[in-house]
Amino acid sequence: xxxxxxxxxxxxxxxxxxxxxxxxxxxxxxxxxxxxxxxxxxxxxxxxxxxxxxxxxxxxxxxxxxxxxxxxxxxxxxxxxxxxxxxxxxxxxxxxxxxxxxxxxxxxxxxxxxxxxxxxxxxxxxxxxxxxxxxxxxxxxxxxxxxxxxxxxxxxxxxxxxxxxxxxxxxxxxxxxxxxxxxxxxxxxxxxxxxxxxxxxxxxxxxxxxxxxxxxxxxxxxxxxx
Length: 226
Hints:
The protein is α/β, with parallel strands linked by helices.
């Protein structure tokens, strides 16, 4: 019998990676002779990926960004980021306790992220979390990625979880839209990387700390969806 499953997004949900992603952004911008961005102001764009952050920085500086330069800076970003893993990145408060809570209750756990697979595996391993997940699926594991619901559904399949007893946990419109399209309830954290509050995207529930991700909440949302 397949187990109930919790599927987590990675950056901005399980792990606060913003300090390292912003460091890598500024490293790449320096190669383009742009000033470093304000960490507080740019944090909300972290979840949109390195390419978008580079675009935003160039737009803010009113600088043209040719495609070849964009590609060059993106490659520099990735090289710098991967070389520094795990850097300052750490699990959010309550993550380890929530993982233990669901493991003890017999749930499978998985990660479904638009981060590249190699970077995802390296980060999760460096933080000692790999053993907790029966599947980790980055953006390049399948020929589709969030918000395509198949990314989530195939992650659940890879993990041996029950799609009829599944819950997504994420921090962005992408995560929420993915789960909705897959017919799976979704809990949004309100401390992640988004330029609009997650309530605007109408998730099944919103939490402000992982202590609020209880067995009771997960089961209630799964029962309602079923």
